[in-house]
Structure formats: structure tokens, C-alpha cells
Design a protein that fits this description.
Among the domains are: 227 residues, Rossmann fold, CATH 3.40.50.1460; 101 residues, Sandwich (Immunoglobulin-like), CATH 2.60.40. The chain is 25% helix and 27% strand. The protein has a 6-stranded mixed beta sheet with strand order 10-9-11-15-16-17, sandwiched between helices. Helix 6 links the parallel strand 9 and strand 10.
Length: 510
């Protein structure tokens, strides 16, 4: 009996499928969720279970690959990551360099010692960058976002995972979410640069979200603690630094000289690994160290290790360098990083995305050698997908802040409100009034799910008799229990237009 064309086609397709190699990778492209790939020693499989569940609950397609599957050399592990499909967005190396080796840093200072021999067997410090670069031996731009958990056993791993889970379960109004510490130094050749970089970050970004509790000079602490130890500045002392961190902080940023085991923040009085081990407050979600060597893979216990491996306090993520930088561009790095981290509060990037974008921007400004050095040096110890959510609860934005209109016209001011809280929130909106203008809002109450952004409008009309040229500033505010965001716009009256016609104003009686 002759078979139909359809039947023969089906038989052909089945035959092709049967001819596929038995070891072919399963089709993993069915999910549109971003892939989070974890590489780990076999003995960590059970301990990683809660972390896999956590990342799955956050919307990732999680894959756990044990070293028995990937191979144990750095080349084998890189090949596995590079060939994995769909390509991961995040890759986490769960293990210290003794378990998952790192790569030699080609742009490190000549003669710097480290555990990673290069091609000529000259000792070099380490980098994890080359697990993430897939376009040949000269490629320096990462294709995936990489982090490492510097744990040596399942007890350290379990304690760190418990801190991750605690962070995700913390209430959205926890006091530490609204506090951030900027730590400078009193080095005569350095302090002005580090204080200046911190002040730029505060003035440009954090003063709209964070407040601090320390400034011995009596200056405003809006934007965060100014833990500046220089005698001509805030004269911060060790007890101020310890008290601030133990009180709980969303971020701690250090800028200054460093070593593998210390921040050299005060002359003769380092903040070191022993000080970190003595911390007793809640873990800091992100510690950023703009300093040399503090994430040195060769150190038995580096500053990065001390922060991450503290059982209950310390940090969830630490960004620092694994070797000494010969081109000091950390002030630029701090400025760009904060811009990446806080420029889009409605859809904040992860710390890994922010750092990757920051370092890639170096390529447009600096030489290849400087860019290579920074890409090699800066490591993320901790979960690279962690996000720093602005604590205010809401963020108001407008495409412009200055508006002009003719006398009697209704001026439409577009604006948006983004819910930056991790829970659905109802906001009350208001606009300030004026003797020269009548004001109204499209909505007075709006309920938004987490990270939802709502476009709205304000309506302003100058009253008859107002003199042309009058300029008025208006505050649009979003409140929960108190004001959480303020947008200030200005309106200026122009001369009446020719053929002036009264335009009805929203809310006018028919």
C-alpha cells in the first residue's frame, strides 16, 4: 500500500531524529527566562539547593553544572560556559580558586606575584575575566556576567546562602535600606580625590534616596555617611566607621589606598580583616572597594573573603581588585558606576550589569591597556545578579523641568511615577499651588505593582491678570505615609498669543 506524502515525511523526520548522536545536548531554548549557570565542585551539590530555589523564585532558569561534568581545568570550564545554550546571562563560580582555578592577568604590573602562571611561567596575579570572554585570545569584553563565591567548604557556602535568603526576606522598610556609607582616607596625596569622588556620587545620585548619621562637621548627611577621616574634613574615627556599619547599611563604599588584608583609611590605623570579623550588624548587600589588592586571590584571607565569609554579618557582595592598578582611574569608575546603578530606578540593573557597563565604557575613554587592566582587576565576589533597590519607594521623572505658556493657556506637564518598592504600593500625588496659577493632576491616587511605571500629566494655567514673565516653581510629590519623591518643575508666562482664546481648564464647570 502506498503511503501518503504526509506519512512519508513523518517517517523521514523520525529517521533523522534517530540518527542524532545520543550525547546531543537537550533542547534548552524553550524557556525565555534568563539563564543563571552555576559551576561548582560536586561536593557542593546538596548545599546549593536553597540557592538554586532562591534564584528560580526570582525568575531565572537555573542550571547547576558540577566539575565532574564540566571538567576541572580553567580551559575545560570556560569551554563548557562558552558552549552552553541558551547563553547564560549570569555565571557563578561556587568555590575558591583552589577548587575552580582563575586566569593569569596579562595587564598586571610586571613582577607582581600571584598564584596564576602565565604562558612563560612568570608568576602573575589572578583574574576571573577570561571565563566570560568568548571571541578569541585577545578579547577583553565579557559576554556573560560573572561572580564567584570564595567558599572552601559547604559550611561556608551554607552560611553565605543563608545571608542571601535573609536579604530577600527583609522587610522593604528595614532602616538599613535607607542608609549608605562613603568611606574616604587621610592620605595626604589621596584624600582630596577620594572625598571628591564620594561627593560627586552623593550630589549626583544618592542624595535623592539615602540619608546618613555621621558628619562631625555638622554638615547635611543627606545622601549618606561621610566617613572622611582627614583633619581638614569630617575627622571620622574608627568607632564612627564601626558604629555605622554595625547599624546596618545598604552599601559601604571605600575609596583610598588598600592592601590584600586592609583598607588604609587612617594613618597608622587600618580597617582590616580582623575588624571585619568583629562586625555584628546585619550583612551589607554591597561593599565596593575602590582600592588596590583587596580581592587578591593569592591572600589566605583577603578583605573580600573576610566580608563574604562572615557567618552572620559582613557582606553579600564585594567588588574589588585582585591586583595593584598602575593607572588610577577609580574616581571615574565610581562616578560611572553610580550612574549605571541609579540612573534607572524603575528598572535597576544588577550589580553585575552595572559593573560590566561601567568597565565597557572605559573602552571609549581610555587606552586598551588601561581598559584591559581594569577589566582584569575588578572582581565580583558574591551573587552578580543582586540588585540595589532605591529605598524611597517611588521615583518621579519628567522629560523636561522648564515649561512655558501664554497667558490663560492650559500647560500640560507630562511626568511618570515608578514604584521602586518590592511590593505593590498605593501612592498619593499632590502638586503645590500658587497665587498666579491654577493647578490640577490627572490622578491623585495611583496603585503600582513593583517596578511599574505610570505615565501621567499635570495641568497648569496662569490666572487672568498675571503679568507676563512671571515664573513659578511647582513641586509634584508622591507619598506613601510621608513624601517619598519630589519632582520640581518651573512654568513661565509669556505674552498673550494673537487672537487670544480662553482654553478650558481641566476641572472647569461645563
Amino acid at each position: 500500500m502506498k503511503r501518503s506524502i504526509f506519512t512519508r515525511l513523518i517517517s523521514f523526520l523520525l529517521a533523522v531524529c534517530l540518527l542524532l548522536p545520543a550525547h546531543a545536548a537537550p533542547a534548552r531554548a524553550q524557556s525565555t527566562l534568563p539563564v543563571y549557570l552555576i559551576i561548582a565542585p560536586d561536593e557542593f551539590e546538596y548545599a546549593l539547593g536553597p540557592f538554586v530555589n532562591l534564584k528560580t523564585s526570582q525568575g531565572f532558569q537555573v542550571a547547576l553544572a558540577l566539575l565532574s561534568k564540566t571538567g576541572s581545568t580553567k580551559e575545560q570550564i570556560k569551554t563548557y560556559i562558552q558552549d552552553y545554550r541558551p547563553r547564560p546571562k549570569y555565571v557563578l563560580l561556587a568555590g575558591d580558586t583552589s577548587q575552580i582555578p582563575s586566569w593569569p592577568a596579562t595587564a598586571a604590573i610586571a613582577g607582581t606575584q600571584g598564584p596564576c602562571p602565565n604562558s612563560t611561567n612568570q608568576p602573575r596575579p589572578c583574574t576571573d575575566l577570561y571565563y566570560a570572554t568568548f571571541d578569541g585570545s585577545t578579547d577583553i569584553l565579557p559576554d556573560v556576567i560573572l561572580g564567584r563565591l570564595p567558599v572552601q567548604d559547604d559550611l561556608q557556602l551554607g552560611a553565605l546562602i543563608n545571608k542571601f535568603i535573609g536579604f530577600e526576606q527583609a522587610p522593604p522598610d528595614a532602616p538599613w535600606r535607607k542608609k549608605i556609607s562613603f568611606v574616604a582616607n587621610d592620605n595626604v596625596d589621596y584624600y582630596a580625590v577620594s572625598e571628591g569622588a564620594h561627593n560627586d556620587a552623593i550630589d549626583g545620585w544618592t542624595d535623592q534616596y539615602f540619608y546618613g548619621t555621621f558628619d562631625r562637621t555638622g554638615a547635611s548627611t543627606l545622601g549618606g555617611d561621610r566617613l572622611y577621616p582627614h583633619q581638614d574634613s569630617c575627622q571620622a574615627e574608627e568607632q564612627d566607621l564601626l558604629a555605622s556599619i554595625n547599624d546596618g547599611r545598604l552599601m559601604v563604599i571605600y575609596h583610598g589606598p588598600g592592601s590584600s588584608t586592609a583598607w588604609q583609611w587612617r594613618t597608622g590605623e587600618d580597617f582590616n580583616t580582623a575588624d571585619v570579623a568583629a562586625l555584628s550588624g546585619p550583612p551589607v548587600p554591597l561593599v565596593l572597594a575602590l582600592a588596590d589588592n583587596t580581592a587578591d586571590f593569592a591572600a589566605e584571607v583577603s578583605m573580600a573573603d573576610a566580608w563574604l565569609l562572615h557567618e552572620t554579618a559582613g557582606a553579600l557582595a564585594y567588588i574589588g581588585t585582585s591586583f595593584e592598578l598602575y593607572a588610577d582611574r577609580n574616581d571615574d569608575l565610581e562616578n560611572i558606576f553610580f550612574g549605571e546603578l541609579f540612573a534607572h530606578p524603575g528598572s535597576p540593573p544588577s550589580i553585575g550589569e552595572a559593573l560590566k557597563n561601567t568597565l565597557i565604557k572605559f573602552k571609549t575613554v581610555y587606552s586598551v591597556s588601561v581598559t584591559t587592566q581594569y577589566l582584569e582587576a575588578y572582581q565580583i565576589l558574591g551573587d552578580p545578579s543582586l540588585k540595589i533597590i532605591p529605598p524611597s519607594g517611588g521615583h518621579l521623572e519628567s522629560p523636561a523641568i522648564n515649561y512655558y505658556g501664554h497667558l490663560g493657556e492650559t500647560i500640560v506637564l507630562p511626568f511618570s511615577l515608578t514604584n521602586t518598592r518590592p511590593v505593590t504600593t498605593k501612592f498619593s500625588l499632590a502638586i503645590s499651588d500658587s497665587p498666579y496659577f491654577t493647578t490640577a493632576l490627572e490622578l491623585l491616587v495611583v496603585e503600582l505593582i513593583p517596578l511599574e511605571k505610570r505615565e501621567m500629566s499635570a495641568y497648569i494655567r496662569s490666572l487672568e491678570g498675571t503679568d507676563p514673565g512671571v515664573q513659578q516653581f511647582f513641586d509634584i510629590t508622591a507619598s506613601i505615609d510621608t513624601v517619598v519623591s519630589t519632582l520640581t518643575v518651573s512654568v513661565q508666562v509669556l505674552d498673550p498669543p494673537l487672537n487670544y482664546v480662553y482654553l478650558p481648564f481641566i476641572g472647569d464647570s461645563p
